[in-house]
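Chain A, query sequence.
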Amino acid sequence: QVQLVESGGGLVQPGGSLKLSCVTSGIHFSDYDMVWYRQAPGKKRELVAAATTGGSLNYANHLKGRFIVSRDNDKNALYLQMNTLEPEDTAVYYCNARHQYEFHRDYWGQGTQVTVSS
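Chain A, predicted structure.
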């Protein structure tokens, strides 16, 4: 059974930081491209950052410099360090795993809420 479990969300003041984690089980983690998405109320889900099997780290242009994505293949985990948070970063953050070749092997976590507010 495949599981992706996000954690680390919460309430933070503007300018603060949070680190999200996504721990996976049931997949051969190193074969999967890992992506963070987010969805704010009333908005479409958007890509935040990706850590590919080949070691590439990619970001939404408007988030570069504030967010840092990383993965640990030994721990089967994906991380997102979020700095200088803004109210506009308020959203549910989702972890996605997609096999590098077999695209039908595409899995999602349940999401973790991030709220940036004073």
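The first strand starts at residue 3 and ends at 7. DSSP finds no helices and eleven strands in the chain.
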